[in-house]
Write a structure and sequence with these properties.
The structure is a homodimer.
Chain A (H helix, E strand, L loop, with lengths): L23 H8 L3 H7 L8 H14 L5 H8 L4 E6 L5 H16 L3 E6 L5 H12 L4 E4 L6 H9 L4 E4 L9 E5 L1 H14 L5 E5 L5 H16 L5 E4 L6 H13 L6 E4 L2 H14 L9 E3 L16 E3 L2 H14 L9 E4 L2 E3 L7
Parallel strand pairs in A: 1-2, 1-3, 3-4, 4-5, 5-11, 6-7, 6-8, 8-9
Antiparallel strand pairs in A: 10-12
The first copy, chain A, binds a DNA duplex through helix 2 and helix 4.
Chain lengths: ~350, ~350
DNA sequence: AATGAATGTGCACGCGCGTGCAAGCAATGC
DNA sequence: GCATTGCTTGCACGCGCGTGCACATTCATT
């Protein structure tokens, strides 16, 4: 009565040295119940007698049993896996978003699978294919701009796609966006109010949607008040080094600007350092610099960069909610927009 | 002869709005072959006639089929999933390592599942449990210090554990370590050669193995040459803010140190900023500061921090190799050690 | 023409799990 | 005493896949 079926008549594949995970059948054998009972014990809401439940739990504990979520996902058709596509994890802003996202997904009972996008657009397809192979409940694209055909084929093959600050608005996937143009207008307004007239904008040669919106928004707003800003784009990615190079270019010639709007904090810090250390400019007396993202470094004493904060927590929360809701097949794709808030520090004259 | 079995008599579950992924059976029906043929087409090295192979590929393409790696993993007993346990993704060093790691894992045909460790040690168990549930081929622990009992129970339940700079050497899992003590000795030597005699070390109250080794190594080395360094530990985590606070404490009193060794770059930058901006000290004339990790920010113009570079690429490569090799059941756990290299910049007098 | 080898294909099983269905059992109502 | 109800439990099936085995087919060889 105590413990029958002591020796597990489980299977013949017992001696697998590597990854010898315990299966429910072995637990069942040890607990002297059927495998169904084990399964029910670990299924919330299933009907199991308190006695058997306890016996199963004891046996599971002793054997070190863990439900196989892969198999469970197979029958339930939901893996619990959410893929997150990123290219530059190292960048402070991306790692911030990624961190918050994984944490929240985890709290929601999901798990984040991070897919790195190495270089060109081409492997966007490979990465998304990977996501499909693991039957991701949703795929969140933080970096890279999958071509429209790729996006369509993903959607057709049953994948759930959530683009964050990616692509143009007319395609099919759910989208989360930032009011970049509005922020850029606010930036211009701040510069003008501070008395700056010689404006410049620093961006990169290869622009993503976000970056393009920011620079274009700034340029438009400037023109609307009769100012034609200088535009400097350096390098492919928004790095500190490219920011410094852009700054060097800006400050070398004659018409030195008195205010620079950077599409990105890291770039802005590069510009800032070039101004101070390479050209001996005083910020904000000689020069105002504004960034975007509000990365932690922007608050450091050496910089105190005025910038726009992305509501990362809200964005992550929205994404998780989208994932949890699921997607109704016929329904229109969701499109959410968030507003960055200006964080005043001391890199802009006011 | 062209295409028989046109309408897929697949299953009754066709109308699943959400995540309607295509299965091999439907592809088989469309291509007019058996499901085995489809399976073999996507299995490297399996025997398929060129003709059927093409037909299958066409059908798969049309239907948007992707092999279900969950199911494949179920029968092959290898999921391709590698879990990476991290707590502070936001920190530059962690995100650097994580980025390289995910990329290399991906190149090796694996996929990284990131598990965030929220706060206390307690949920280390929950997180590792999660890894087991997804039948991770290996679990790489970058943050958090799972208690020995947790580690043992993980190993017993068949999990493959790789600890990076974690735990003490006597437990069972594979380990990758850094020669922190050696680096600390080199740091001291550099200070002494630079003529510094009033030394200090900045660390945190809650130390991980790495941090403890660094501070202890420095202290020992200092005592070996007859110097008793001041020790300041601030806060729980190694953050910029805690570094700044530690710096404030160091520079406020009488016996101001002329050299500070920080267990961490981010902390060092906080100390540096406190020294320069809050106390008007000149670096390196009045004060030498050394950090650890060589994060990108350390190379920025405002800091130019002398620090130790972790061979992140090598570490990641070693981890991937460990994962690929598998673990022979009886064999001793692997233990690898790497050596950080001193990167000279201009925050230390020489 | 007959035989052997070689190649390709389908069948059926198992991987670990959830669950509908029916059978078992105890408790309750008449 | 019997019928009814409610709760457990085991059986059996399917989720999507890889693969051993047997069979069909083709081709070269004797």
């Amino acid at each position: 009565m105590t413990d029958l079926g002591r020796d597990a008549p489980a299977s013949r594949t017992v001696d697998r040295g590597a990854s010898a995970y315990v299966s429910a059948r072995e637990v069942a054998a040890r607990a002297g119940v059927s495998r169904s009972a084990v399964s029910r014990t670990f299924t919330p809401g299933a009907s199991v007698a308190e006695d058997t439940r306890r016996r199963v739990l004891v046996a599971a504990e002793e054997l070190g049993y863990h439900v196989n979520k892969l198999a469970r996902g197979l029958s339930l058709q939901q893996s619990g896996i959410v893929c997150v596509v990123v290219s530059d994890i190292m960048s402070p802003q991306m790692s911030r978003l990624l961190g918050i996202l994984t944490r929240r997904l985890q709290q929601a009972g999901r798990v984040a699978m991070v897919l790195s996008l190495s270089g060109p657009d081409d492997d966007a397809r490979l990465v998304l294919q990977r996501a499909a192979q693991y039957r991701a409940e949703a795929t969140i694209v933080l970096s890279g701009t999958p071509s429209r055909s790729i996006v369509r084929s993903c959607l057709e093959s049953g994948q759930r796609l959530i683009l964050i600050s990616r692509d143009d608005p007319e395609t099919g996937p759910d989208r989360i966006r930032l009011d970049n143009a509005g922020a850029a207008r606010a930036a211009l307004l701040a510069f003008v109010r501070g008395g700056c007239r010689h404006l410049a904008v620093v961006t990169t040669e290869k622009q993503t949607l976000s970056l393009a919106e920011r620079s274009a928004g700034f340029i438009e707003a400037a023109r609307a008040v009769g100012i034609e800003p200088r535009i400097v784009s350096r390098g492919v990615s928004t790095s500190y080094e490219n920011g410094r190079l852009a700054g060097t270019e800006l400050f070398t010639g004659e018409r030195r600007p008195d205010a620079v709007f950077c599409v990105n904090d890291v770039t802005a810090l590069g510009v800032l350092d070039a101004a101070r250390h390479d050209f001996g400019l005083r910020v904000p007396e000689d020069l105002s610099v504004m960034g975007f993202d509000n990365i932690p470094e922007a608050d450091w004493l050496s910089y105190r960069l005025t910038t726009f904060d992305q509501p990362v927590e809200d964005i992550a929360a929205a994404v998780v909610q989208l994932v949890e809701e699921g997607r109704d097949p016929g329904g229109d794709p969701v499109s959410l927009s968030f507003t960055p808030t200006l964080v005043w520090r001391s890199s802009v004259r006011c």
